Amino acid sequence: MTGRVIKAHGGYYFVKSNSRIVRCYARGKLRQQVQRLVAGDLVNFTIVDEEENEGVVEEVLPRKNQLIRPPVANIDQVLIVFAFAQPKPIPMLIDRMLVVIGAAGLKRALCFNKSDLATKEEVERLTSIYKNTGYPIMITSAKTGKGHEDIMNFLEGKVSIFSGPSGVGKSALLNFINPEFDLEIGELSSKISRGKHTTRLVQFLPVGNEGLVADTPGFTSLSLQGISLGELGHLFPEIARLSGECRFADCSHRSEPGCAVHEAFITNEIQESRYESYLKFYEEIQMADEDYKR
Ligand SMILES: Nc1nc2c(ncn2[C@@H]2O[C@H](COP(=O)(O)OP(=O)(O)OP(=O)(O)O)[C@@H](O)[C@H]2O)c(=O)[nH]1
Ligand SMILES: [Mg+2]
Ligand SMILES: [Zn+2]
Questions:
Q1: How far out from the chain centre does Cα 171 lie?
Q2: H or E stretch including 139?
Q3: Which of 55, 64, 92, 103 could cross-link with 24 by S-S, CB 3.0 to 4.6 Å?
Q4: What's the sign of the alpha-carbon dihedral 240, 244, 250, 251?
Q5: Could you tell me if 43 and 55 are in contact, meaning their C-beta atoms sit under 8 angstroms apart?
Q6: 115 CA → ligand 1 middle, Å
Q7: DSSP assignment, residue 168?
Q8: In terms of Cα–Cα distance, which of 221, 277, 235 is closest to 105?
């Protein structure tokens, strides 16, 4: 039988096949492989004990894509969740997630949660940064239910994950979508309003008809490893769109004359924080490349 790993926990892999979920262990030869099984993996498995609903994973099918953080495979899209406050959004971290997830070939959308804690101006300020990127933007609140429909429409029929820092409300939003999920919601540490890493596992849950969505542990550090300097500009849609107009075909959009991207930054067509992120990531990749050559 073929199924999808929806959760890995305690040495077991919970494999969903149609409407059935079977608790499986992995064949010895699989356990020795370097590639660990992760949530989202598609596998061939056999039932070993019908009564106990236990099986064994025989084979992992080739992955169509994967992320290292959170560890997950074979997904269609990622909802990048940040909060307007508690914890405060960090644009450069948002951009970093957009870049890393884009490099993995996945569709991205932005969710700004805890809108109940934000003024109109704050909502406008954060969303305006991403207006000309083309990414879908959802303004939500797990408290008031705002944006519920937008999220449901986004998730319908797709395999998705919620990803973002600890404490932004990923689990709370999922519980709001379906109270039966009954996911654990964390407290915030009082001083700096950071999350306490409440969610520890990647776990896929059924949503709508045919959809699957995973709650994932929050994280804040993310490596750009594997992303080339040439690729970076393509991972910022508003930069990619303009790069054909630069004087030099291989323009890095930093200080070359006739750079359409730099020009657009000057005229505010490209947002300052987005351009800053681009420059910062450029430097970071460049330094890593030099270290590698040394
Ligand atoms: N005011 C407000 N609080 C929220 C909202 N969503 C979540 N919270 C609160 O934020 C805190 C953290 O929520 P969680 O859902 O546990 O956050 P998480 O993103 O799953 O965090 P990790 O599992 O640690 O990665 C809880 O105290 C929630 O009650 C919201 O829309 N508005
Ligand atoms: Mg959580
Ligand atoms: Zn340029």
A1: 14
A2: strand 137-139
A3: 55
A4: negative
A5: no
A6: 12
A7: S
A8: 235
Atom of ligand 1 nearest to the CA of 168: 19
**How far, in Å, from the CA of 199 to the mean position of ligand 1?**
11
Q: What is the CA radius of gyration of the chain?
A: 21
Give the Cα separation of 102 and 284 in Å (integer).
17
**Mean pLDDT of the region 217-221:** 91
- The 10s digit of each residue's pLDDT in 249-273 is 999 999 999 999 999 999 999 999 9
How far, in Å, CA of 210 to CA of 232, rounded? 34
Taking the CA of residue 117 as reference, the ligand 1 atom at the shortest distance is: 1
Q: Residue 66 is inside which H or E element, if any?
A: strand 66-67
- Domains of the chain plus CATH, in order, are 2-62 (2.40.50.140), 67-215 (3.40.50.300), 229-293 (1.10.40.50)
Going by their DSSP bridges, the two strands 77-83 and 159-163 should be labelled as: parallel
Ligand 1 atom at minimum distance from 165 CA: 25
Calpha distance 106→108 (Å, rounded) = 6
Q: Which of 199, 216, 220 most suits a substitution to test ligand 1, by most atoms within 8 Å of the C-beta? A: 199
The alpha carbon of 138 and the centre of ligand 1 are apart by a number of angstroms equal to: 16
CA dihedral of 257, 285, 135, 188, whole degrees rounded to 10: -130
pLDDT tens sequence across 98-107: 999 999 999 9
pTM: 0.96
CB 199 within 8 A of CB 145: no
User: Which residue among 198, 202, 205, 216 has the greatest number of ligand 1 atoms within 8 angstroms of its CB, and so is best to mutate?
Assistant: 198
- Cβ atoms of 16 and 47 within 8 Å: the answer is no
